């Protein structure tokens, strides 16, 4: 699932008006002491194309989905996030809420929310249920948590929404009290790079923030940050300026938003009484959201990708323990014809034994029976990053390096003794570019070329790609790695000497 800010973009800054008293009462039963942010959207306001001004192109792709929600009786859409939606694990993505008004079709609304891209939506929540006069969309953990929730009056969030009035979109953000206490107790002070000073500036000096989108305004997006006093507002503005300066120096942000330096220079925030005010165009707001969200999303995707490769490496070692060798790159029939990839062979060690049993092991990957199983590729074979594009359904970028160039045959599984260069110095699985993705059950891997170019291979993440080594570890390799070092890491028995600082 995408983060809260990413969802705002995905829905194209859809419009909303002030909620009715009945709707407010329903929504209030889903707000507790752990709620940190709410987005409020009125679906009726997008009925006419062009109503969203600058944001219209962003909403166009999802207009049929949003219109389908409206026709099903949905009038307002809320996205909520709280302390339970923050890493580390257990982690739940932000969840959606649609209050049910007279005549609304709860079943149809749930099908649209949980239908995801197949229904035209940006994402698919895994669980949709009618509860307390609304349709809730999230995951199983969210549903159970909300069922047991004790609602809490949150005047801070209410005040943030009040400043947005009847704006076509409203976002209210406030730090839950539990998090404020944690900051007070665990954070000694702000980093020197941000001007230093007590952490109470963030935990107590910042009361709440709101964003309002009004398409007819000269600056459609208006951000308000409510401080405890005028002095605190000035200090928050100064800290914000230092944060922007650090963002300018971030190579990851520049990778996602190349024109960020000019974008940052266009900011003109100001202090009005005890508030910081910032006005932006919709286009600039999208760029700023990307500058904040995309690197965070990439970082999370990279960590999840590392976990995938560690699971794959562990499955490889479990196969080794049972068979005496690592799995061959692919299985073959009696005549030596390739049948199924190593990814199929390790299914029993990935808690996917039932899927493994469904394969006809004596048939090739593209036989009518086996081909029908391709769309059921286990999630562990899918890198979650969207950088460079998204592979087609049932295809993977995780491959084994093979070929004469590195002395790895395509039909034989290596033993530990044959990895004479050391398992910690030998790559077992790596990420390849999206245009080299293959069906996961297909006996196809990365045939290492004579001339290596790491920058052409390590493109999945900013600055490099993830790899799994034969010792079971997973590491990030930079795209600036020397070609000879890269080749040394690919050969299991090349006899090369690799220093600890070479990669």
What does this structure look like?
This protein has 503 residues and is α+β, with helices and mostly antiparallel strands. It folds into three domains: 1-174, no CATH class; 176-280, no CATH class; 300-490, no CATH class. It has 18 helices and 20 strands. Strands 4-5-3-2-1-6-7-8-10-9 form a ten-stranded antiparallel β-sheet, with helices on both faces. A four-stranded antiparallel β-sheet has the order 14-16-19-20. A two-stranded antiparallel ribbon has the order 11-12. β7 (206-213) and β8 (221-227) form a beta hairpin. The longest helix has 42 residues, at 282-323. Residues 1-21 have low confidence and may be disordered.
List keywords for this structure.
20 strands, globular, alpha+beta, ten-stranded antiparallel beta sheet, four-stranded antiparallel beta sheet
Topology record:
Blueprint: H1 4-10, H2 21-28, E1 35-42, H3 56-60, H4 63-71, E2 76-82, E3 95-99, H5 106-115, E4 127-131, E5 134-138, H6 140-147, H7 155-164, E6 169-173, H8 177-186, H9 200-203, E7 206-213, E8 221-227, H10 230-248, H11 251-256, H12 260-265, E9 270-272, E10 275-280, H13 282-323, E11 330-332, E12 338-341, H14 342-345, H15 353-358, H16 368-371, E13 395-396, E14 398-399, E15 401-402, E16 427-431, E17 438-439, E18 446-447, H17 454-457, E19 464-469, E20 474-478, H18 483-490
Parallel strand pairs: 15-18
Antiparallel strand pairs: 1-2, 1-6, 2-3, 3-5, 4-5, 6-7, 7-8, 8-10, 9-10, 11-12, 13-17, 14-16, 16-19, 19-20
């Amino acid at each position: 699932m995408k983060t809260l800010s990413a969802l705002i973009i995905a829905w194209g800054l859809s419009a909303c008006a002030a909620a009715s008293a009945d709707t407010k009462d329903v929504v209030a039963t889903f707000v507790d002491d752990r709620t940190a942010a709410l987005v409020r959207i009125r679906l009726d306001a997008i009925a006419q194309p062009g109503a969203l001004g600058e944001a219209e192109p962003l909403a166009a792709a999802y207009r049929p989905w949003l219109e389908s929600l409206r026709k099903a009786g949905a009038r307002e859409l809320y996205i909520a996030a709280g302390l339970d939606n923050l890493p580390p694990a257990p982690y739940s993505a932000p969840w959606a809420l649609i209050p049910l008004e007279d005549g609304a079709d709860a079943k149809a609304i749930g099908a649209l929310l949980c239908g995801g891209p197949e229904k035209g939506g940006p994402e698919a929540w895994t669980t949709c249920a009618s509860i307390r006069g609304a349709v809730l969309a999230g995951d199983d953990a969210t549903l159970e948590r909300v069922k047991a929730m004790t609602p809490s009056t949150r005047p801070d969030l209410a005040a943030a929404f009040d400043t947005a009035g009847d704006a076509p979109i409203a976002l209210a953000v406030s730090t839950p009290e539990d998090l404020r206490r944690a900051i007070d107790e665990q954070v000694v002070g702000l980093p020197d790079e941000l001007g230093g000073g007590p952490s109470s500036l963030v935990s107590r000096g910042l009361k709440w923030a709101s964003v309002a989108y009004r398409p007819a305004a000269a600056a459609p997006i208006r951000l308000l940050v409510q401080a405890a006093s005028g002095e605190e507002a000035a200090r928050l503005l100064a800290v914000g300026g230092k944060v922007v300066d650090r963002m300018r120096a971030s190579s990851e942000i520049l990778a996602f938003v190349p024109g960020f330096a000019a974008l940052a220079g266009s900011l003109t925030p100001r202090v009005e009484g005890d508030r910081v005010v910032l006005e932006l165009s919709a286009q600039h707001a999208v760029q700023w959201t990307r500058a904040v969200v995309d690197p965070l999303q990439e970082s999370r995707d990279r960590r999840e990708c590392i976990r995938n490769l560690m699971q794959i490496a562990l499955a490889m070692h479990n196969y080794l323990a049972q068979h005496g060798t690592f799995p061959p790159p692919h299985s073959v029939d009696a005549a030596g014809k390739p049948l199924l990839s190593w990814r199929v062979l390790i299914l029993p060690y990935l808690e996917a034994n039932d899927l493994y049993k469904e394969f006809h092991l004596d048939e090739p990957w593209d036989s009518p029976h086996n081909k029908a199983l391709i769309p059921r590729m286990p999630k562990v074979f899918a890198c979650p990053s969207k950088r460079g594009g998204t592979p087609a359904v049932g295809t993977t970028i995780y491959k084994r390096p093979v070929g004469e160039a590195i002395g790895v045959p395509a039909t034989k599984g290596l033993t530990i003794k044959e990895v004479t260069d050391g398992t910690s110095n030998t790559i077992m699985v790596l990420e390849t570019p999206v245009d080299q993705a293959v069906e996961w059950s297909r006996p196809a891997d990365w045939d290492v070329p004579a001339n290596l170019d790491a920058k052409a291979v390590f493109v999945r993440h900013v600055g490099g790609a993830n790899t799994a080594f034969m010792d079971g570890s997973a590491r990030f390799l930079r795209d600036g790695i020397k070609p000879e070092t890269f080749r040394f890491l690919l050969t299991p028995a090349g006899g090369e000497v690799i220093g600890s600082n070479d990669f």
